[in-house]
Specification:
The chain is an alpha+beta fold and 110 residues long. It contains 2 helices and 4 strands. A 4-stranded mixed sheet has the order 2-1-3-4, with helices on one face.
Length: 110
């Protein structure tokens, strides 16, 4: 991919020690969610289609992870499981329709 991506997906892979008060996406299975995104991007050749995928540190709402952020839309998804990845790609990335059932609640930063 060259140039500005159509959509850029950030998947939190933050880990913290057991018992940390904020928790972490890692303890909630973000590794499998990240792998599912990576596999789907590869299978669908999304990098060549103008999409970007990046694993990242903490996105903020650790208590409801795994967290996924899609730019430039500024859409945050929470509690994302591997089985949710295809629907995020099919609906949001391909057709600009955010997946309502996975959207972070407005109070996610409280």
């Amino acid at each position: 991919m060259s140039g500005k991506p159509k959509k850029h997906v950030f998947v939190c892979v933050q880990g913290r020690p057991a018992g940390h008060p904020r928790g972490s996406c890692q303890e909630k299975g973000c590794g499998q969610t990240w792998q599912a995104f990576s596999d789907e991007f590869t299978a669908r050749n999304l990098w060549a289609s103008g999409f970007a995928l990046t694993n990242t540190g903490c996105l903020g709402p650790c208590h409801v992870g795994p967290s996924v952020l899609v730019y430039p839309d500024g859409i945050m998804y929470t509690n994302v499981k591997p089985e949710d990845v295809a629907v995020i790609i099919d609906e949001h990335l391909m057709f600009d329709q955010p997946v309502q059932r996975l959207l972070a609640t407005p109070d996610v930063w409280s």
